Amino acid sequence: MCAGCKGTGDVVTLAAWRIAGNPRPSGAAWGPVRAFFASHGWCSGDGSAAGEWAAPARREVPVVPYPDRGELLDLLQACRPVDTVPEVRAWCDERGIVGRVHGAVLPDVHRWPAWWPYRARPWRLVVPMVDALGKVASMHGRATEDDGGRGKTRCPYERRGDGLFFADPLIGRAMLRGEAEPARVVVVEGVTDYLSAARYATAGPGGTAVLGGISGSFGAMAQARIPKAATVYAWTDPDEAGDRYAREIARALREYDVRRIDFRRTEP
After folding, report:
1. β-strand 184-189 against 231-236: which pairing, if any?
2. What is the pLDDT of residues 163-219, one digit of tens each?
3. Could you tell me the sign of the dihedral formed by the alpha carbons of 78, 83, 88, 91, in that order?
C-alpha cells in the first residue's frame, strides 16, 4: 500500500502508475507498460511470458589455501635455533622470553616460497601455527629489528590463516592430537606473549599446556581436544584488547572453567 495515495497492487501496478499514469490501463494504454517489461526480458512483445525464469549464475569464490605443506616444513627445517643467533637471543631476553624459545630464526638464504616474499628480515623469528588437531599448517613471523613502520608481525602472503593458533611442542600439540591430558591449559594473546608463556609448559601428570592466538584464532580453539577436567586460564593483557581476547577465549571454551589472569602481574 502506498502511504501517500493509499493505492494497492503489485509491481505491474506500480510500473503502470509510473509509465501510463494509471494503475489499470486498458487497450492501447498497456503498450508502453508492455514495452518496458519486454525490454528487460520479463515478457515477450505481445505480453506473454518470456520463458521460464532462471536464477542468475552463482559467482565462484576462489578458495584461498594454506601454505603448501612441503614448502612450509622445508622452510621451518632450514631455520636456526634462537640460541645460535646472538641478536635474536638478546631480543628475546629483553622481552622476558627466557629459556628455550619455541620459535626459530629464518635462514639468511633460502628458496623462498611465493607465500613468503619477505625473505629473512626483519621478521626473522617465526613460530609454527597448528590446527585443532595439532598439525602444523602455517607460521607467523615477528620482527626482531626495526620494521620500518611496516608492522611487527607477518603472516604468509595470500594464504589463509583461519582456524590456526600456537601450541607448545612439549605437551600442547600432543594434547591436540589426543595423546596427553594436562591439568591446566594457559591461553595467551599474540606471538610475543605466547613465546614468553611457553616456558611454563610442563609434561606429565598435572602438566600445563600453553596455547596462543592472534586476531581470529580463538574461535578455532573450540575444536581443540582440551581435557574436560582441565582448568583453562585466559592469560591476557590488562587493557581493552586483552579484555576482548579474554571474552573470545571464554566464549570459545565455554564448556570449561575459564579463569582470567593478568599477564603482566601474575604467573599461571
Report:
1. parallel
2. 999 999 999 999 999 999 999 999 999 999 999 999 889 987 789 999 999 888 888
3. positive
DSSP-assigned letter for residue 107: P
DSSP classification of residue 29? G
CA distance 140 to 120: 13
For the cut 80, the answer to whether the pLDDT of residue 48 exceeds it is no
- Tell me: pLDDT of 5 over 90: no
According to the model, what pLDDT value does residue 31 have? 76
**Residue 262 burial by CB count (10 A; 0-12/13-18/19+): exposed, middle or buried?**
exposed
Q: Which of 222, 93, 214 is nearest to 151 (CA)?
A: 214
Q: Where are the domains of the chain?
A: 1-54, 69-262
Q: Give the residue carrying C-alpha cell 493509499.
A: 6
* Per-residue cell: 19: 509509465
DSSP string, 163-187: T-BEE-TTTHHHHHTTS---SEEEE
Amino acid at 212: G
Q: Of 267, 219, 266, 210, whose CA–CA distance to 245 is shortest?
A: 219
DSSP state of 198: G
3-state secondary structure of 56: coil
Q: Are 208 and 267 in contact (CB under 8 A)?
A: no
Q: Which helix (H) or strand (E) holds 210?
A: strand 208-213
In whole angstroms, give the CA distance from residue 200 to residue 186. 9
